[in-house]
Prior knowledge:
By secondary structure, chain A is an all-alpha fold. Chain A has helices at residues 3-13, 16-23, 27-38, 41-61, 67-85, 94-100, 115-127, 130-141, 146-153, 157-181. The N and C termini of chain A lie far apart (46 Å). Chain B contains seven helices and six strands. Among the domains of chain B are: 2-49, no CATH class; 122-225, no CATH class. In chain B, helix 1 (2-14) crosses helix 3 (34-45) and helix 2 (20-32) crosses helix 3 (34-45).
Amino acid sequence: xxxxxxxxxxxxxxxxxxxxxxxxxxxxxxxxxxxxxxxxxxxxxxxxxxxxxxxxxxxxxxxxxxxxxxxxxxxxxxxxxxxxxxxxxxxxxxxxxxxxxxxxxxxxxxxxxxxxxxxxxxxxxxxxxxxxxxxxxxxxxxxxxxxxxxxxxxxxxxxxxxxxxxxxxxxxxxxxxxxxxx
Amino acid sequence: xxxxxxxxxxxxxxxxxxxxxxxxxxxxxxxxxxxxxxxxxxxxxxxxxxxxxxxxxxxxxxxxxxxxxxxxxxxxxxxxxxxxxxxxxxxxxxxxxxxxxxxxxxxxxxxxxxxxxxxxxxxxxxxxxxxxxxxxxxxxxxxxxxxxxxxxxxxxxxxxxxxxxxxxxxxxxxxxxxxxxxxxxxxxxxxxxxxxxxxxxxxxxxxxxxxxxxxxxxxxxxxxxxxxxxxxxxx
Lengths: 182, 235
């Protein structure tokens, strides 16, 4: 059974071993996600188990199309709720997290690029700030990894990462605006 | 498994065990896959992947799933046991009921025998009110009892209706039979009435039925079973 069939099977049967099969492949990724927010090994492990407990109910009632994205958003929200509960303030970069909620779903599938599209892209590139422009170019055009970009530019590795993430998002917004505005 | 593959990639990425191309590839994927990016961020914060931790987590999940299955099995067996228990209980009660009814029915049969035979084995008396107002001083029940104790009616039995007058001493006199009864029956009726208990009222009219006598049981003159009862008794 593939993921969709497993989901459907669980929804109708409520068979826990089916849910286990569905959940188990994501556990290590989930642990990473939980650790990112909770920053404690035991709490993160418990969170992974607790999320499973919640899925037992949720997945019987909700229609879930893309399990992976859904699970990611669900667990992230779960962790943020945990943090809110114990009123622990954590530094969460709003820019960083804005990116996270964007899904792979709206990834534009292989559209043919014409000459004017490249001109448009060039125009949009110029609207980015210097850091973003620099990092996006190095990453997407020269296909350098974050570490290399950090070495070349002298920026911090995390700064490189967020510059690329945000640059990518801004470019997308810019392109769409031009597309619609003509 | 896709997951473990990603895990080793994350591990290698964080520990700088990847070539630049591989790193770029993973970063590219992570840009399109926020789930992966979050996981990478988390493991980087933890300074690497702890596989022991993850296998423990995997074990917890397995145990969780198995527990539920085990619980369901336990419940299932409990239900099975309950069902067996209930069936056994029902069977037991049914058996008891059967035994009881068998016993009860046997008793009832015997009782019926007695009841069936009773009116025919006893001398019975039926006061006929249209011909008189007399009643035995001690009541009809006592009178009937007396008749049964003292009756010496002929073996053939029979029915007789008599009229009589009660004298000032409460004794029936001038006893006459209606119709043409056997003389032995009339004699017996007269004897019983004259020697029997006292009466009140002025005149009486009675129908007395004498049972057929059991030849084999002369001692109990009145207790005579009708022919159809012999069959049952023999059983």
